[in-house]
Specification:
- The chain is of the alpha/beta class.
- Helices cover 42% and strands 14% of the residues.
- The strands form 3 sheets. Strands 1-7-6-5-4-2-3 form a 7-stranded mixed β-sheet, sandwiched between helices.
- The longest helix is centred in the C-terminal third of the chain and has 38 residues.
- It starts with 12 loop residues before the first helix and ends in a 5-residue tail after the last helix.
């Protein structure tokens, strides 16, 4: 395949932008509500606010709070407001990051370094987390030299506290759980795990990356949401993504700590560099000012009233979709999802083939395995497409049921193969090969 090189001569601005916009023709159009994940949409007014705030600080760099004190002001104010949203007191602290993975990585790093300072006898640190925990914890364990022990979930796809308790060893330094889980939209039993962590003096991290900006407002609206934040005594840190249900562009999340003594274990300082003291609060050195400005602006633009309105719309759409899916013969929703994320499966048809049929009709759902299911993350904007989606879903399901079993193809075949391979090393090798080929220059 021919290697590309830098153009000898630059193109006109209009020509470049025209080419750029043409690339989008094959992308999912999330503005019409046909995509159930990756982008969180609350309407044009919110999108415009986030875009303009980002543009105002597009080139500023939060690496230096001395050169850009306005970014430091916005970040500290943002952390304070978000900390109070999750019932942190005046001692609560945190940092803004580039996304949920970085937030989780920082929390695991802080827990590891806290253990080094307070439990120096532990030489091979371990963390315990349920199978449904986000893979960012596996990544963090791999990067930071921890062993991760993953435990079963119950019939509602929530962490089994007993299994987590039995998995604790003298090397355990960290317990982790989720509110809400990505695969099935569940809230792990945070209070029970928190009590377990407090009794053993273990660090407990709650991953609220997905549900963090939805659950507090659903609770205020009267929905039954169990305590999942700093109200639970054992919780020492949390991760929450405002680039999800905060409706801002990608690249901004938050890691929160109960106090600054815990947060300091996250920081990195190198004092012997000729260029000066190198000190960063998180993994990134340079940090985009636009992400901070956009996040700060959206809190002020929406306020509690705006977030409540959006949460209500998203939850109502979720309830209608869940009820509609449950009414289709052969389809069922996993568990009883309390928020705006859920998945469904089937005991009659191949759901991977169903995903292909829905894609042919313009709907984009993400496939999952172990067990086979299709995932939906619901935004407020999905309120507009509930009935058209359910109509197409009924039609696609009936079509597959009438046709009978068929050999899966394409993405359906890939997921089916990945789920059924008994050798998980072979499954990993297959995924690595797929990824390596995916990120190659195409003709």
């Amino acid at each position: 395949m021919k290697q590309l090189s830098l153009p000898k001569k630059g193109m006109a601005k209009e020509e470049v932008l025209s080419l750029l916009h043409s690339f989008k023709s094959g992308d999912s159009d999330w503005h019409d509500g046909h995509l159930f994940g990756l982008v969180y949409y609350a309407g044009e007014d919110v999108e415009d606010m986030a875009r303009e705030a980002y543009a105002a600080y597009m080139f500023e760099n939060a690496l230096s709070p001395f050169d850009f004190p306005s970014l430091l002001k916005m970040e500290t104010e943002f952390i304070s407001m978000v900390g109070s949203l999750f019932h942190g007191d005046e001692a609560a602290a945190g940092s803004m990051t580039s996304g949920g993975t970085e937030s989780i990585l920082m929390a695991v790093k802080a827990a590891r370094d806290w253990a080094r300072a307070h439990q120096p006898e532990i030489k091979a640190p371990e963390m315990v987390a349920p199978l449904t925990i986000h893979p960012a914890f596996n990544k963090a364990a791999d990067y930071l030299g921890l062993k991760i022990i993953q435990t079963p979930v119950d019939g509602e796809f929530r962490a089994e506290v007993g299994a987590m308790k039995e998995s604790i060893t003298p090397n355990t330094i960290l317990l982790a759980a989720t509110a809400v889980t990505y695969p099935h939209g569940m809230i792990d039993p945070i209070a029970e795990i928190g009590a377990l962590a407090a009794a053993r003096n273990l660090w407990f991290h709650v991953d609220g990356c997905l549900g963090g900006y939805m659950l507090p407002f659903l609770e205020k609206l009267g929905n039954e949401i169990p305590p999942f934040d700093f109200r639970v005594p054992g919780v020492r840190s949390m991760s929450v993504d405002i680039h999800k249900y905060g409706y801002v562009s990608k690249g901004v999340s938050t890691v929160l700590y109960r106090n600054i003594d815990l947060r300091q274990h996250q920081f990195y300082v190198y004092a012997d560099w000729p260029g000066g003291v190198y000190a960063t609060p998180s993994l990134s050195g340079a940090r985009p000012g636009g992400a901070i400005a956009s996040a700060w602006a959206i809190l002020h633009c929406l306020g509690e009233e705006g977030f409540l309105k959006l949460a209500k719309a998203a939850r109502q759409a979720t309830v209608k979709l869940v009820e509609g899916i449950q009414a289709i013969p052969g389809l069922f929703v996993f568990g009883k999802p309390p928020a705006t994320v859920f998945s469904f499966g089937s005991d009659k048809i191949n759901v991977y083939q169903l995903a292909v049929k829905l894609k042919e009709r313009g709907w984009h759902l993400h496939s999952q395995h172990r067990p086979a299911s299709l995932h939906l993350t619901i935004s407020p904007y999905h309120e507009k497409i509930v009935e058209p989606f359910l109509k197409d879903l009924r039609g696609a399901a009936a079509e597959l049921a009438a046709a009978g079993p068929a050999e899966p193809a394409g993405e359906a075949a890939l997921y089916g193969m990945m789920a059924t391979l008994p050798d998980r090393k072979a499954a990993k090798a297959l995924a690595l090969q797929y990824l390596n080929n995916l990120y190659r220059l195409k003709e």
